[in-house]
Amino acid sequence: MFQLDDQFLADVGLAGLPEEQKKPFLQHTYDQLEYKVGIRLSEGMTDGQLEEFEAIIDRKEDVITTWLGAHAPNYQNEEVFQRLMQASNLSANDPGLRAEYAATKWLEVNRPDYRDVVAQTLEEIKQEILGAKDAILGAGAPPQAA
Predict the structure, then answer these.
(1) Are residues 61 and 105 in the same domain?
(2) Do 16 and 53 fall into the same domain?
(3) What whole-number distance in Å separates Cα of residue 19 and Cα of residue 37?
(4) Cα three-residue angle 137-40-17, rounded to 5 degrees
(5) pLDDT, tens digit, for every residue of 35-83?
(6) Does 40 lie in the same domain as 20?
(7) Confidence at 136, pLDDT banded by 50, 70, 90
(8) How many structural domains are present in the chain?
(9) How far apart are CA 67 and CA 102, in angstroms?
(10) Are residues 105 and 52 in the same domain?
(11) pLDDT tens column, 16-48
């Protein structure tokens, strides 16, 4: 889908960011993306939907098991689950893998536009960074002698 990495930094004009600042900057960007996407996705959801998704994110096994049984009873055979399992190198019964899949599937069912929301939000963040790149790069530069 997307990666926040050196290529992302190059895309937003920050390839020259000092090495020690890259990881914290990418983590901050990810945190902002997660926050903004969460706000947008929650708009229009019922309290029940929000509670259910929160329980899945919090890895409450009983909620995950019930939800998967109702919405994806054969989830272990689904392509998305297989790809997650392969990428993570975890067993099919790993609770973290099941929770990750359940969260992804929950979004597909309840917010089928979530990928578009992520892409649009990431693009907005990119534009914000591009607009502030000189200030960002300047903040990382050592003071110059007069």
Answers:
(1) yes
(2) no
(3) 28
(4) 10
(5) 999 999 999 899 999 999 999 999 999 999 999 999 999 999 999 999 9
(6) yes
(7) confident
(8) 2
(9) 8
(10) yes
(11) 899 999 999 999 999 999 999 999 999 989 999
User: What b/e readout covers 110-131, taking b as 16+ CB neighbours within 10 angstroms?
Assistant: bbeebeebbeebbeebeeebee
> Does 143 score more than 60 pLDDT?
no
Angle at 117 between CA 125 and CA 92, to 5 degrees: 110
Q: Is the pLDDT of residue 128 over 90?
A: yes
Domain residues for the domain of 92 are: 46-110
**pLDDT at site 52:** 96
What value, to the nearest 5°, has the Cα angle with vertex 60 and ends 58 and 64?
110
Residue 143 lies in a domain: no
Residue 146 lies in a domain: no
CA distances from 31 to 35, 93, 124 (A): 6, 29, 14
My answer on whether 27 and 41 are in the same domain is: yes
Domain-located, residue 145: no
Q: How far apart are CA 66 and CA 53, in angstroms?
A: 13
